[in-house]
């Protein structure tokens, strides 16, 4: 119909923009009640040692199933939660749930959770972590908190101070998605991260033989080694990607090749002795 008005190509896009805003509004509204309705679940993805594939622990990844919206990926709703101040209660639920769940695993296994920059603007955050550890009984050494560089951009100095408080508690910090943002080396001097997580884009590139990706992974591994940090390569799906990462010297690997994110019950089943398997059929 817009063609009748003289070739106006803008008009057809207006309803779609409107629909986007409407979808956002509905999602935010549903997000508000999601915690109370118990719509969130944590999935856990294995992280293994690159050298021999032994299990080190799991990264907790949130999942949301809503009656109206169905399954919504964290890539879509986490940014919305961050913008609408809902991230604090959701993040606290993630922290407490992951700590409690990890207590049911063999005691050598760690659990990693993702924490948004917005959560670190709350001066109370370290106290919430202390409480979650105390309530669950999880030793701080078994908890890893993953942040991205965006925490340093958000507020001047406050986040770095908060991260220092967390380190003082004995928990580990990881720098997530390294290489995709500013990747300023200053952050690595400011904060004692245990692990640098190399983004999947470099893993994919390196396996395809892209010289830039290979050079960047090599440089990150060398930097981490000399700073006493470990490296985790994210998103390895194929044997070639796993072999490439191993050759480049990353300490740990996480990706579909070793396991997809799975429900808590599937994790527990991994530790059940095989002779008790018939129980699982019930
Ligand atoms: P992330 O922390 O970098 O998590 C890794 C993402 O890569 C996850 O996506 C995971 O499912 C996916 N992945 C793992 N292995 C592979 C692979 O081999 N191939 C491919 N293609 N993908 C792989 P997911 O679960 O959709 O989460 C996306 C992002 O949402 C996370 O990225 C994290 O930034 C955020 N997120 C997830 N859970 C939480 C949470 O509880 N709190 C906060 N604040 N953010 C979360
Ligand atoms: Mg992560
Ligand atoms: Mg990541
Ligand atoms: Mg990521």
UniProtKB/TrEMBL annotation:
Looking at the record, the residues that make up the EAL domain are 24-275
* Designated name of the protein: Diguanylate cyclase (GGDEF)-like protein/PAS domain S-box-containing protein
Protein's organism: Sphingopyxis panaciterrulae
**What stretch of the parent protein is included here?**
489 to 770 of 770
